[in-house]
Design brief:
214 residues; alpha+beta; Elongation Factor Tu (Ef-tu), domain 3; 8-stranded antiparallel beta sheet; two-stranded antiparallel sheet; 3 helices
Protein backbone atom coordinates (compact mmCIF):
# COMPACT_ATOMS: atom_id res chain seq x y z
CA UNK A 1 0.00 0.00 0.00
CA UNK A 2 1.47 3.42 -0.96
CA UNK A 3 2.23 5.88 1.84
CA UNK A 4 -0.36 8.58 2.52
CA UNK A 5 0.01 11.98 0.92
CA UNK A 6 1.80 14.56 3.11
CA UNK A 7 -1.43 16.56 3.52
CA UNK A 8 -3.20 13.49 4.95
CA UNK A 9 -0.79 12.90 7.83
CA UNK A 10 -1.06 14.45 11.28
CA UNK A 11 -3.60 17.02 12.50
CA UNK A 12 -5.05 19.55 10.11
CA UNK A 13 -2.58 22.47 9.71
CA UNK A 14 -3.86 25.79 11.00
CA UNK A 15 -1.65 28.87 11.51
CA UNK A 16 -3.81 29.99 14.44
CA UNK A 17 -3.15 26.67 16.17
CA UNK A 18 0.49 26.22 15.12
CA UNK A 19 2.24 28.54 12.67
CA UNK A 20 5.55 26.64 12.59
CA UNK A 21 4.69 24.25 9.70
CA UNK A 22 3.80 27.24 7.52
CA UNK A 23 7.32 28.61 7.92
CA UNK A 24 8.94 25.35 6.82
CA UNK A 25 9.23 23.58 3.49
CA UNK A 26 10.38 20.00 3.23
CA UNK A 27 11.54 18.75 -0.16
CA UNK A 28 12.62 15.15 -0.60
CA UNK A 29 12.58 14.70 3.18
CA UNK A 30 15.02 17.61 3.70
CA UNK A 31 14.05 20.98 5.19
CA UNK A 32 14.93 24.07 3.19
CA UNK A 33 17.95 25.48 5.10
CA UNK A 34 18.08 28.88 6.71
CA UNK A 35 15.19 31.14 7.61
CA UNK A 36 12.54 31.28 4.90
CA UNK A 37 11.79 34.85 3.86
CA UNK A 38 9.29 34.42 1.03
CA UNK A 39 7.49 31.72 -0.92
CA UNK A 40 5.84 32.16 -4.30
CA UNK A 41 2.19 31.56 -5.04
CA UNK A 42 0.81 28.01 -5.15
CA UNK A 43 -2.07 29.04 -7.41
CA UNK A 44 -3.68 26.08 -9.17
CA UNK A 45 -5.53 27.19 -12.30
CA UNK A 46 -8.21 25.31 -14.22
CA UNK A 47 -8.22 25.21 -18.02
CA UNK A 48 -11.66 26.15 -19.38
CA UNK A 49 -12.94 26.48 -22.92
CA UNK A 50 -15.81 29.00 -23.08
CA UNK A 51 -17.99 28.62 -26.16
CA UNK A 52 -20.24 31.45 -27.21
CA UNK A 53 -24.00 31.09 -27.57
CA UNK A 54 -25.23 29.77 -30.91
CA UNK A 55 -28.77 31.19 -30.85
CA UNK A 56 -32.07 29.41 -30.21
CA UNK A 57 -35.44 28.71 -31.76
CA UNK A 58 -38.64 30.64 -31.15
CA UNK A 59 -39.91 27.92 -28.77
CA UNK A 60 -36.78 27.81 -26.61
CA UNK A 61 -37.56 28.59 -22.99
CA UNK A 62 -34.64 27.41 -20.87
CA UNK A 63 -31.04 26.27 -20.93
CA UNK A 64 -29.82 22.69 -21.01
CA UNK A 65 -30.03 21.22 -17.50
CA UNK A 66 -26.86 20.65 -15.52
CA UNK A 67 -26.27 16.83 -15.46
CA UNK A 68 -25.37 17.13 -11.76
CA UNK A 69 -28.87 18.41 -11.03
CA UNK A 70 -30.71 15.65 -12.88
CA UNK A 71 -32.96 15.80 -15.98
CA UNK A 72 -35.02 18.83 -16.88
CA UNK A 73 -38.21 19.22 -14.91
CA UNK A 74 -41.49 18.52 -16.72
CA UNK A 75 -45.18 18.92 -15.86
CA UNK A 76 -48.32 17.31 -17.17
CA UNK A 77 -49.02 20.21 -19.52
CA UNK A 78 -45.66 21.80 -20.25
CA UNK A 79 -42.35 20.32 -21.44
CA UNK A 80 -39.19 22.36 -20.79
CA UNK A 81 -37.63 23.22 -24.13
CA UNK A 82 -33.91 23.48 -24.85
CA UNK A 83 -32.60 26.98 -25.46
CA UNK A 84 -29.68 27.61 -27.78
CA UNK A 85 -29.05 31.12 -26.54
CA UNK A 86 -26.76 30.11 -23.69
CA UNK A 87 -22.99 29.71 -23.86
CA UNK A 88 -21.22 26.50 -22.87
CA UNK A 89 -18.28 26.09 -20.49
CA UNK A 90 -16.10 23.03 -21.09
CA UNK A 91 -13.54 21.99 -18.48
CA UNK A 92 -10.32 20.77 -20.11
CA UNK A 93 -8.26 19.93 -17.01
CA UNK A 94 -6.15 21.36 -14.21
CA UNK A 95 -2.99 23.29 -15.05
CA UNK A 96 0.23 22.60 -13.18
CA UNK A 97 1.94 25.10 -10.89
CA UNK A 98 4.81 25.93 -13.21
CA UNK A 99 7.00 28.06 -10.94
CA UNK A 100 7.32 28.81 -7.23
CA UNK A 101 10.26 30.88 -6.01
CA UNK A 102 11.53 30.23 -2.49
CA UNK A 103 13.93 32.58 -0.70
CA UNK A 104 15.73 31.88 2.57
CA UNK A 105 18.51 33.63 4.47
CA UNK A 106 21.67 31.82 5.60
CA UNK A 107 23.45 33.35 8.60
CA UNK A 108 25.48 30.51 10.13
CA UNK A 109 28.27 28.18 9.08
CA UNK A 110 26.08 25.13 9.59
CA UNK A 111 23.20 26.60 7.58
CA UNK A 112 25.55 27.22 4.65
CA UNK A 113 26.72 23.59 4.76
CA UNK A 114 23.08 22.53 4.86
CA UNK A 115 22.35 24.65 1.79
CA UNK A 116 25.11 22.94 -0.20
CA UNK A 117 23.81 19.53 0.87
CA UNK A 118 20.28 20.62 -0.07
CA UNK A 119 21.47 21.62 -3.55
CA UNK A 120 22.91 18.12 -4.00
CA UNK A 121 19.47 16.67 -3.23
CA UNK A 122 17.64 18.81 -5.78
CA UNK A 123 20.17 18.89 -8.60
CA UNK A 124 20.59 15.94 -10.97
CA UNK A 125 23.94 14.82 -12.27
CA UNK A 126 24.90 16.73 -15.40
CA UNK A 127 23.09 15.31 -18.41
CA UNK A 128 20.65 13.28 -16.31
CA UNK A 129 16.92 13.77 -15.89
CA UNK A 130 15.86 16.06 -13.04
CA UNK A 131 14.59 13.96 -10.10
CA UNK A 132 11.21 14.55 -8.49
CA UNK A 133 10.70 14.89 -4.74
CA UNK A 134 7.95 14.90 -2.17
CA UNK A 135 6.83 18.36 -1.10
CA UNK A 136 5.56 18.99 2.44
CA UNK A 137 4.13 22.41 3.20
CA UNK A 138 0.59 23.22 4.39
CA UNK A 139 -0.09 25.81 1.70
CA UNK A 140 1.13 23.60 -1.15
CA UNK A 141 -0.53 20.44 0.12
CA UNK A 142 -3.88 22.20 0.68
CA UNK A 143 -4.24 22.71 -3.10
CA UNK A 144 -3.01 19.20 -3.95
CA UNK A 145 0.64 19.96 -4.78
CA UNK A 146 2.58 17.12 -3.15
CA UNK A 147 5.49 16.53 -5.55
CA UNK A 148 7.95 18.94 -7.15
CA UNK A 149 11.16 19.23 -9.10
CA UNK A 150 13.80 21.93 -9.33
CA UNK A 151 13.29 24.54 -12.04
CA UNK A 152 16.09 27.00 -11.27
CA UNK A 153 18.85 26.88 -8.68
CA UNK A 154 22.02 28.74 -7.62
CA UNK A 155 24.36 28.76 -4.62
CA UNK A 156 23.66 31.23 -1.78
CA UNK A 157 24.93 34.74 -2.51
CA UNK A 158 26.08 37.26 0.08
CA UNK A 159 23.56 40.06 0.47
CA UNK A 160 26.20 42.75 0.96
CA UNK A 161 29.99 42.35 1.14
CA UNK A 162 30.96 41.61 4.74
CA UNK A 163 27.35 41.37 5.94
CA UNK A 164 27.61 37.69 6.82
CA UNK A 165 24.09 37.19 5.43
CA UNK A 166 23.67 34.95 2.40
CA UNK A 167 20.48 34.86 0.33
CA UNK A 168 19.49 31.44 -1.01
CA UNK A 169 16.99 31.56 -3.90
CA UNK A 170 15.67 28.71 -5.99
CA UNK A 171 12.58 27.82 -8.01
CA UNK A 172 10.55 24.65 -8.09
CA UNK A 173 7.65 23.43 -10.23
CA UNK A 174 4.86 20.95 -9.62
CA UNK A 175 5.74 17.47 -10.85
CA UNK A 176 3.16 15.26 -12.52
CA UNK A 177 4.46 12.24 -14.48
CA UNK A 178 3.02 11.37 -17.85
CA UNK A 179 0.61 8.46 -17.66
CA UNK A 180 0.43 5.92 -20.46
CA UNK A 181 -3.09 5.64 -21.85
CA UNK A 182 -4.48 2.13 -22.25
CA UNK A 183 -4.61 1.04 -25.88
CA UNK A 184 -8.04 0.07 -27.19
CA UNK A 185 -8.87 -2.87 -29.44
CA UNK A 186 -8.21 -2.41 -33.12
CA UNK A 187 -11.26 -2.11 -35.37
CA UNK A 188 -11.93 -5.30 -37.36
CA UNK A 189 -11.02 -5.12 -41.01
CA UNK A 190 -13.97 -4.27 -43.22
CA UNK A 191 -14.59 -6.57 -46.21
CA UNK A 192 -13.88 -4.96 -49.55
CA UNK A 193 -16.72 -4.11 -51.95
CA UNK A 194 -16.74 -4.08 -55.72
CA UNK A 195 -16.44 -0.60 -57.20
CA UNK A 196 -19.65 0.88 -58.48
CA UNK A 197 -19.76 1.67 -62.22
CA UNK A 198 -19.43 5.33 -63.11
CA UNK A 199 -21.53 5.28 -66.33
CA UNK A 200 -23.74 3.10 -68.54
CA UNK A 201 -20.75 1.67 -70.47
CA UNK A 202 -19.02 0.50 -67.31
CA UNK A 203 -22.32 -0.88 -66.05
CA UNK A 204 -22.74 -3.00 -69.17
CA UNK A 205 -19.14 -4.24 -68.92
CA UNK A 206 -19.69 -5.14 -65.26
CA UNK A 207 -22.87 -7.06 -66.25
CA UNK A 208 -20.99 -9.09 -68.86
CA UNK A 209 -18.17 -9.89 -66.41
CA UNK A 210 -20.63 -11.05 -63.80
CA UNK A 211 -22.42 -13.23 -66.38
CA UNK A 212 -19.10 -14.82 -67.43
CA UNK A 213 -18.46 -15.83 -63.79
CA UNK A 214 -21.76 -17.81 -63.65
Amino acid sequence: MPPPEPAATGPRPNPFRDARPFGQIEIGGVLVPGVIQSVGDYTVKQDWNFQKASGGGSTATSANPDPANGPAATTATTTVQTAGSFGVSVWRGALLVEEVEITSVITTEQAYDDAIDFIAVLMPKRGRKVPSHSLVNPDANAVGVTRCAVRELAVPKEDKPGSGKYVFKFKICEYNPQKQAAAGKADPAKPGTEPKPADAGEAELQRLLNKAKE
